[in-house]
Design the sequence.
């Protein structure tokens, strides 16, 4: 059985001062606090969400 590819993303900047849709994207990615690391399945939808808030997050690993 093939293992699913995951991507680890860390929030490096606060969503304060940014548009409400960017804040909602951070919440949709699973972030609740600054410097939190979340590991998600590497899908085109997740990649699109990361691209939308790329100035607020950092990709830690993309195995």
Sequence:
């Amino acid at each position: 059985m093939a293992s699913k590819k995951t991507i680890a993303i860390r929030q490096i900047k606060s969503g304060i001062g940014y548009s409400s849709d960017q804040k909602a994207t951070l919440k949709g990615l699973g972030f609740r606090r600054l410097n939190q690391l979340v590991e998600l399945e590497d899908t085109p939808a997740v990649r699109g969400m990361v691209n939308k808030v790329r100035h607020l997050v950092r990709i830690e690993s993309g195995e």
Notes: The first helix runs from residue 20 to 29. The helical segments are 20-29, 44-52. The chain has one domain: 6-61. The mean pLDDT is 93.
